Fold this sequence. Notes:
Layout: E1 7-12, H1 20-33, E2 37-41, H2 45-50, E3 53-56, H3 83-95, E4 100-105, H4 107-119, E5 124-128, H5 144-165, E6 168-173, H6 180-188, E7 193-195, H7 203-215, E8 221-226, H8 235-245, E9 251-255, H9 267-285, E10 291-296, E11 299-304, H10 305-310, H11 318-326
Parallel strand pairs: 1-2, 1-4, 4-5, 5-10, 6-8, 6-9, 7-8
Antiparallel strand pairs: 2-3, 10-11
Helix pairs in contact: 1-9, 5-6, 6-11
6-O-phosphono-beta-D-fructofuranose binds near residues 15, 131, 132, 174 and 176.
Amino acid sequence: MAKEIRTIGVMTSGGDAPGMNAAIRAVARACAYYNVKCIGFYRGYQGMIEGDYCVMNARSVRNIISQGGTILKSARSEDFRTPEGRKKAATHLTEAGVDAMVLIGGDGTFRGGQIFSQEYEIPVIGVPGTIDNDIAGTNFTIGYDTALNTVIDAIDKIRDTASSHNRLFFIEVMGRDAGFIALNSGVGAGAEEILIPEEDLGLDRLLESLKRSKRSGKSSSIVVVSEGDKIGKNVYQLADYVTENLPDYDVRVTVLGHMQRGGSPSCFDRTLASRLCVKAVELLLDGEKNVMVGLINNKVATTSFDDGLSGTHEINKELLRISDILST
Length: 328
Ligand code: F6P
């Protein structure tokens, strides 16, 4: 018979994402609702290794639903990659009386959860929190919607100045391995071209497309580039290449960077975080373990870590076609 769950731990790990606080709040409040003790670990796996934690109750998470960042802080722990680090973490969890953990983060966090759950009898549930949206087992990750809105807002502003000066802007957005942010913000902001890691369209095509834009009477252009794009070595080299080959263009580069990870979460991200984390607590109380929760076709669903980590979350390439048509 599964061990009774009396204490649940929660942590946030990897790159932070707007909505992580809403997720922490949902775990703490669901624990309070079900009369389970809740313990928050600081700096993800590192806090578990160091025994750095606090007891949380319903009031500890007041007014954080609207805040960006994570009150529990986040980190990428190198120590947790080692068996010794994981052993220390397991020892601290046992000492703190933690029976199960909710792990909020991206694929690195889930990989840590997968190996930890194979080594120790401590049930864990993963909740997808990353702006990159690059996790299989969910249509949306917590933070992605807010990041998209942040990017759209920034591109709209850049569009104003691009248009005033008849300039071409290359705008780099986050997405080390995935083009979700670039593709969707690019369509949403009416970019002339979108460059993503999943599709190498080639430099010739980019030049052709920019020439076509000029011929069609456009005075300014926006090219959204995902940071993981393979077409150029980086966005600055891409801009140099276009300047050399299309001297008529006055080219500028903007790298949006970490501003994409901050800010008050959108309603969508707050609701998503709330739904997924209440479910995570309920699953643990029902004896479920070693799975991630996600939103699939607007229903909260579970996927094993194995399937989640071996699967890929495909981008919607149809959006590239839509973008092509609409940037005519
Ligand atoms: O949060 C995901 C992500 O934003 C990636 O798109 C990006 O490459 C990475 O994090 C950068 O994070 P950091 O600067 O924290 O290492």
